[in-house]
Task: structure prediction
Amino acid sequence: MPRILAKETLAPDVVRFWIDAPAIARKRRPGQFVIIRTDETGERIPLTIADADPAHGAISLIVQAVGKSTHKLNRLEPGDTILDVAGPLGQPTRIEPGMRVCCIGGGIGTAVVYPIAKGVRAAGGSVAGIIGARTRDLIILEREMSAVADPCLVTTDDGSYGRKGLVTEALRMLLGEGYGFDEVVAVGPLPMMQAVCSVTRPLGLKTIVSLNPIMVDGTGMCGGCRVTIGGEQKFVCVDGPEFDGHQVDFAEVAARLRAYREDEAAAMDRYRAEIASA
Amino acid sequence: MAKKITQKVKTPMPLVDPDVRRHSFGEVATGYSVELARQEASRCIECKNMPCVAGCPVEIDIPTFVRQVASGDFDGAFQTLSAKNLLPAVCGRVCPQEDQCEKLCTLGVRFEPVAIGRLERFVADYASACHLPVTCLSPTSHVTGTGRKVAIVGSGPAGLTAAADLAKLGHSVTIFEALHKPGGVLMYGIPEFRLPKTIVESEIDKLTGLGVDIKTNHVIGRMFTIDELFNELGFDALFIGTGAGLPHFPSIPGVNLIGVYSANEYLTRSNLMKAYRFPEHDTPIVRGKNVAVIGGGNTAMDSVRTALRLGAEHAYLIYRRSRDEMPARAEEVEHAEEEGVEIVLLAAPTELLGNEKSRVRAMRCVRMALGEPDASGRRSPVPIAGSEFELEVDTVVFAVGQGANPLIRSTTPDLPVTKWGYIVADPATGATQKPGVFAGGDIVTGGATVISAMGAGRRAARAIDAYLHRLPARGHVAADVFIST
Ligand SMILES: Cc1cc2nc3c(=O)[nH]c(=O)nc-3n(C[C@H](O)[C@H](O)[C@H](O)COP(=O)(O)OP(=O)(O)OC[C@H]3O[C@@H](n4cnc5c(N)ncnc54)[C@H](O)[C@@H]3O)c2cc1C
Ligand SMILES: Cc1cc2nc3c(=O)[nH]c(=O)nc-3n(C[C@H](O)[C@H](O)[C@H](O)COP(=O)(O)OP(=O)(O)OC[C@H]3O[C@@H](n4cnc5c(N)ncnc54)[C@H](O)[C@@H]3O)c2cc1C
Ligand code: SF4
Ligand code: SF4
Ligand code: FES
Result:
């Protein structure tokens, strides 16, 4: 069973784990994810492989606690094991040598965009980075992104850190300054990815987004992760998670993410009560 | 000498009352008692040419085991079964016996055939209740290690059978399974009320006893490609038994509304993830009041009966042909109706309608008439113009067939597949056109049966053994270090 080697808090409710998973560390490529289950009654949840250290056989996962499964996970400590870790899953990011990419991460989406940025750099490309969040505390991976991106801009909605405003404004600014990109990669909340697409669409600037539908198996067997891309049905776990943002039916993705709202809230309340009484 | 026939019909199987079982995931059929089993077994007339055996894809010595049951030698009967069948407790429950062994039973010509499946189940359950050892699988009967390594991809009935047979022949066998539990459809598809998961688990435990190493959470094509299994991990031969797990959705509006599932997802949530025990188990499932399941096979039947147990007030089964064409086992259809499933024949959905929250609220259907027989000889359904009707539903489950998962074929370009993506393999040996790679079960035939998948696993194991004996001796064996998660 994969063991947790290290744990570090990056922001409120956001934790970075390093996990002992040598085969995955060796094999994974930017853009891929794992599906984990913390315990016997647990749910299978997808998490991006945020980084890997093949020499030490470790992968890193950056987890934002949003519901019961992620809260349970984030309570684990170094030395604890995770019952199941399956991966790498999904298609790796398509990285061409020497490409110029603008990597945009919103909130926890930065954990997904960072390995892509690092991969682009490793292939001799150039990266401009934009990371955004509601407020200063929620900015993650600034140091890591700065190491691979130049420039690396930070935006906060409330102006508590970096530029005040949205990531789209920073993108407009870079474009206005004459930065040329072969591609934009945007990962974050759906409205953010949609907003980036509406900036790039009129420019014909290719924009890749990473989708996060609810998954079960992650092998293409259940179809629960289906999305509509350019009118065609795709399974995010095998065909994605990255797609041409200009083709994505965002409204459908958003609606499907709400499928279990009430159940999730009930599970979380119950879990809080359990923790409190323990 | 033929015996005198005293009982013309099968000894009935005790069943839980429909009103109780429609709310329970407990097993529907409770199994023969010792008395009932001996009574049924004594119906066998021990006919000389024993046609029943030819109907069993794994060639169980049916007359012998049935005779042993009749005489009360249940241990003997279990050893007879186990000599040919790794999963008797499973097959006794889910084999479509009426189309296989029992179809050919001599008694069946004039009366009802011997209930071979029910007897098989009885013996397997008796053995497990009494912890009878499986002598044919015990370590003493092992051949000495051959030093050859075989990888099995997928742990459904095909892979499990191939693994057991190869291990018995002395090869070192590793199963790679994508999910967190082995068993394939037995684990994620067929519901608890028809096949309790503890039974599947204990049958699979026999394999571990044989020294087979089962690696769960290993998605082949992603973690290792087929070529990497040979070149980096040092396997000498490989069996692919990955099943037909790609769900199909019809091209009608509304299939992506909330509350619309493939049968695979619906059943996986309920069986593998135990969503019926939410919130003790974390995985949720939509518990619809009005559930429509589309299809007419075993998968559809399992889904609609699951819907009832999840609390549906109306569980509809919508099938586009007539009852005669339904591919599901007659017994399952009967059980479903007893439990209150409402079967709507000769109808098909044309559109799913959603509410303001994108949840499905209704299904528009059209009535069908049966037209001329098509290429397969079945009369194909034709929509009747103007016959549309609407059904109020909050959950829809599509069980309209499945296809081949692309993970392995897309990462193994030199493995020939059919135009539907199924692997091309010799039916007698499972050999594919890629040297050392064998395949069998649903990934070759398309959705079929547990026992046919097991038969394919067995034939492939035989061929793999022969292949390994022809293989020149190998110098070095790659270390296992990389298979360590
Ligand atoms: C390919 C992929 C990569 C991902 N990578 C990461 C990552 O690196 N770090 C990270 O923190 N999260 C990531 N996610 C999201 C993560 O899987 C979900 O946050 C998690 O499943 C929520 O489970 P829960 O029980 O804690 O929350 P729940 O109580 O189940 O849900 C809480 C909230 O999250 C939403 N939600 C439910 N399930 C999912 C889901 N599968 N994906 C997204 N939102 C969901 C619900 O709409 C709800 O509002 C990724 C998702 C995908 C599909
Ligand atoms: C709901 C349902 C009910 C059924 N009822 C009956 C019945 O009553 N009687 C009957 O005889 N038959 C029944 N069937 C059919 C029967 O279950 C199948 O024909 C049989 O299970 C096929 O066996 P298999 O070994 O080929 O594949 P499967 O049982 O499908 O197993 C394949 C396994 O391979 C794994 N896998 C797939 N891809 C990979 C990969 N890339 N790497 C690693 N592992 C992988 C899968 O996770 C799975 O565990 C039913 C099927 C369903 C879906
Ligand atoms: S395994 Fe199936 S086909 Fe063979 S004897 Fe048993 S029930 Fe009949
Ligand atoms: S065919 Fe029927 S009666 Fe004859 S041996 Fe087989 S089970 Fe007995
Ligand atoms: S998660 Fe089941 S098909 Fe993608």
